[in-house]
Amino acid sequence: MNLTLDIGNTQSKLAVFNNSLVVVKTFDSEFINDEIDNFLLLYPSIKNLIVCSVTDITLNLEKYNFNNVHFVSSSSNIPFENLYLSKDSLGNDRIALVSSASISYPGKNVLIIDAGSCITYDFINDKNQYLGGAISPGLNMRYKSLNEFTSKLPLVSFESSDKLIANQTIDSINVGVANGVVFEIEGFVRQYLSEYDNLTVILTGGNSDFLSNQLKISIFANQNFLLEGLNNLIKLNISS
């Protein structure tokens, strides 16, 4: 069995794979070691661990008896041709996402949209070449920036709305942020569709449930797409 650990900016995910996905849990990153302890008690057959982190968090792994531990990095073995120019600065989460697309959709043009703290766009073509993508602020980051960089706008918590015109400030912020993200994603997808045939669009990340219901485009929503990519990377980066 394999244990995959995805460490984000605010939350982390652990998942167990035994050929296919067994279980997933999301939790605050400060409790990583406690959660690993719990998973190993519940699933003592776990032998391998792979870690994907976008932070500089320190893990206490010495007490565990994993057969193999791999940290995703720019030097990891990957299943695609990486044409990104600044490879050392490519996020580990993006490496895992593109790996998942490469293995799950061979021979296809794939755009992966990860809607979390940031919104990342990653494109791999039908020749299995990763060309790059884009990064923009996520929903929560947009709310915080409106509050931090103005003197009077309040910090608003996300609330779904089907309005286009709002007549009070809090609603105006919600409508502006939520619709702004939706329109941005739809604009990106339309542009990709105009340049690449037979495009498959994958939506993942913490805000993918909300966005999948708002987007008026054809997408595949998969909350566990990155975790599946990590499980695929284990096979390429551990000793037998």
Integer-rounded radius of gyration = 19 Å
Give the % helix.
25-40%
Alpha plus pi helix count: 6
Strand order of the largest sheet: 6-9-8-7-10-11
- The fraction of residues in strands falls at 25-35%
**Which spans of ≥5 residues are poorly predicted at pLDDT below 50?**
none
Terminus-to-terminus distance: 13 Å
> In sequence order, what are the helices and strands, one letter per element?
EEEHEEEHEEEHHEHEH
* Apparent shape: globular
Structural class of the helices, strands and pairings?
alpha/beta
Number of strands: 11
List keywords for this structure.
five-stranded mixed beta sheet, six-stranded mixed beta sheet, 28% strand
Structural features, described:
The protein contains 6 helices and 11 strands. With 240 residues, it is an alpha/beta fold. Strands 6-9-8-7-10-11 form a 6-stranded mixed sheet, sandwiched between helices. A 5-stranded mixed sheet has the order 3-2-1-4-5, sandwiched between helices. Strand 2 and strand 3 form a beta hairpin. Helix 2 packs across helix 6 and helix 3 packs across helix 4. The protein starts with a strand and ends with a helix. The mean pLDDT is 92.
